[in-house]
Specification:
This protein is α/β, with parallel strands linked by helices. The protein has one domain: Vaccinia Virus protein VP39 (Rossmann fold). The chain has ten helices and nine strands. It has a seven-stranded mixed β-sheet with strand order 5-4-3-6-7-9-8, with helices on both faces. A two-stranded antiparallel sheet has the order 1-2. Helix 7 (about 210-220) runs antiparallel to helix 10 and helix 9 (about 250-260) runs antiparallel to helix 10. The longest helix is centred in the N-terminal third of the chain and has 25 residues, at about 65-90. The chain binds geranyl diphosphate and magnesium ion (MG). The site of geranyl diphosphate has 15 residues, from helix 2 and helix 7.
């Protein structure tokens, strides 16, 4: 803990982590949603993001209730995995000597996906001690812990080495932080010519400001969804030059339609996402950028 002058009259303590960050960590330390744990258990790839692509709707017609449940769970996991692979595909080409940084790694799935695809080293950072421990245990179980490491750290102040990374990303974690601070840290970690990728929910500037649904999503996850424009402004200020932008909004809808039908997995936020996507106030976006 350091101290700073308060109105020039006395010193008050400045905690190393803000109260907001403590509340976010509390959320993720306590989070045990079946939609994350039951999907992850299928192949020990634990994702904390949504799915993309057309769904196999036949899972809903399955007559046996138990089989139906399992098939829906597996289908949602397939869609989430497709999202992770889409992101990983934009990081490359990479090789076993390359190092990647996963900002807001959750229970670790994204770093494992990148490692399995490229053989690269990965460093995942999460503000949740519980998630970092869980992810580390998964890497040990897979025997990839020499190359895939997880750290209980703040993604804005990682303490990781400058210029050491060929690629880095945020997969649905950028709405927890100020973008200028975030991109400054990515720019510091990435080598020149390195690749940064973000997949995010952002509010649509053409709608105006944050809609009721966007505000409900913020309240649900304790986050602060940025407008689309903020990503490009902050990238431009931090040596990140977009090379590919993809609007994944339409591709995100089937996942939420199917998740809405999964009574054993719903968290209550499903209709809000569908309304937000359909009323044009919210977009699911991928941006890949080069570090110059
Ligand atoms: C996904 O995590 C969601 C977030 C990290 C925060 C908000 C994301 C936006 C795109 C707005 P999760 O998989 O833990 O969520 P859930 O428990 O709902 O599946
Ligand atoms: Mg989830």
């Amino acid at each position: 803990m350091t101290t700073t002058p308060d109105a020039g009259t006395r010193n008050v303590p400045v905690p190393t982590q803000s109260t907001y960050q403590n509340r976010v960590a509390d959320y993720w330390n306590a989070e045990e949603n079946p939609v994350n744990l039951e999907l992850g258990r299928i192949d020990d790839l634990y994702h904390h993001h949504y799915g993309i692509g057309e769904a196999d709707w036949s899972v809903l017609d399955e007559p046996d209730a138990g089989v139906r449940r399992d098939r829906i769970t597996a289908e949602l996991h397939r869609l989430e995995h497709a999202q992770a692979e889409l992101l990983a595909g934009h990081l490359g080409p990479l090789g076993p000597a390359d190092r990647v940084f996963d900002a807001g790694c959750g229970r670790g799935g994204g770093s494992v996906v990148a490692h399995l695809r490229y053989g690269c080293h990965a460093d995942g950072v999460t503000i949740s001690a519980k998630q970092a421990e869980f992810a580390g245990e998964q890497a040990r179980k897979r025997d990839i812990d020499a190359k895939v490491r997880y750290h209980h750290r703040n993604m804005l102040d990682t303490g990781l080495p400058s210029g050491a990374y060929t690629a880095s990303w945020n997969n649905e974690s950028s709405m927890y932080v100020e973008l200028d601070l975030l991109f400054a840290e990515h720019a510091r970690l990435l080598r020149r010519g390195g690749r940064y990728v973000v997949i995010t929910g952002c509010y649509n500037d053409t709608y105006g400001q944050a809609s009721r649904e966007v505000s409900l999503i913020n309240a649900h996850y304790i986050c602060d969804i940025h407008p689309r424009s903020a990503y490009f402004r902050a990238m431009a200020r931090n040596r990140l030059v977009p090379v590919h932008v993809e609007d994944l909004t339409a591709a995100a809808v089937p996942y939420w339609e199917l998740r809405k039908e999964a009574q054993h997995l719903v968290t209550g936020i499903e209709e809000t996402f569908l309304t937000a996507y359909r009323n044009g106030s919210f977009q699911y976006l991928l941006i890949a950028a080069d570090r110059v």
